[in-house]
Specification:
Layout (H helix, E strand, L loop, with lengths): L7 E5 L4 H12 L3 E6 L2 H13 L6 E4 L5 H15 L4 E4 L15 H29 L2 E6 L12 H21 L4 E8 L5 H6 L3 H9 L9 H12 L10 E4 L7
Parallel strand pairs: 1-2, 1-4, 2-3, 4-5, 5-6, 6-7
Helix pairs in contact: 1-8, 3-4, 4-5
């Protein structure tokens, strides 16, 4: 698979989970990575890790993706520093453990939609504007199989991720002619701190894993590998796709 030498990427949610794995893999391919995350301490730790691995241009920015002003500042600063933006990976998300629809409080609904869907919209909007100016770019949004089936947990999470898939398709159609590709990955259960926090117990997590035909949960590295493919030149004709990576869960 082609390397990303000389390219510039912003990875939201890059301090942990899928975002961190994407940042590490991209940096290993020569990409200059800007990590954007609300967790400033862990973001700096990941950026330092990338620097120790040889990615001297890697950096971290504390930010809230649901803030239009902070999104604009991030992209503006990235362009000022590097002169371009080639890749955006929208991995930032919240996943509060919520019970049924009737028991979902309005503030929790607003928080999940604000970060998971509005944040992806704001990042796409600002990044696409920059990519249009340079005539090229690739975006990968992170959705979830919760967007594709009824769920008895965290209704706003599934709704937000369904919106991410539609946003991906709309942006792909509208900007394909400007040299920009927009795709999304659709993970099943991935063993991340956020996934485990969303479960009531480790036993509940294990029960979910037992339902996966592959016999294991996905790893952040599984999702990072798919993301790398989607931004590579080998995926040049893939646009508007929602690519499921779930160990066979949706096929069952």
């Amino acid at each position: 698979m082609s390397d990303l030498a000389g390219q510039v990427a912003i990875v939201t949610g890059g301090a942990s989970g899928i975002g961190r794995a994407v940042a590490v893999l991209f940096a290993s391919k020569g990409c200059r990575v800007v990590i954007a995350d609300q967790d400033a301490r862990r973001g700096v730790e990941v950026a330092d890790e990338l620097k120790r691995g040889g990615s001297a241009d890697s950096s971290s920015t504390e930010m809230d993706v649901s803030s239009a002003a902070q999104v604009d500042a991030l992209v503006t600063q990235t362009l000022a520093r590097f002169g371009r933006l080639d890749i955006l990976v929208n991995s930032a998300a919240v996943y509060p453990p919520l019970p049924s629809l009737l028991e979902t409080p309005e503030p929790a609904w607003d928080q999940v939609l604000s970060v998971n869907l509005k944040g992806t919209f704001l990042m796409c909007k600002r990044a696409i504007a920059a990519m249009v100016d340079q005539g090229s770019g690739a975006i990968v949004n992170v959705a979830s199989i919760a967007a594709m089936k009824g769920t008895n947990y965290s209704v706003p999470y599934g709704v937000a991720k369904a919106g991410v898939i539609q946003l991906t398709k709309a942006a792909a159609v509208q900007y394909a002619g400007r040299g920009i590709r927009v795709n999304c990955i659709v993970p099943g259960l991935v063993d991340t701190p956020m996934s485990r926090r969303s479960m009531a117990s480790s036993e509940e997590f294990d029960r979910f894993v037992a339902q996966i035909p592959a016999g294991r949960a996905g790893t952040p590295e599984d999702m990072a590998a798919l993301t790398l493919f989607l931004v590579s030149k080998e995926a040049a004709f893939i646009n508007g796709a929602a690519m499921v990576s779930d160990g066979g869960t949706m096929a069952r």
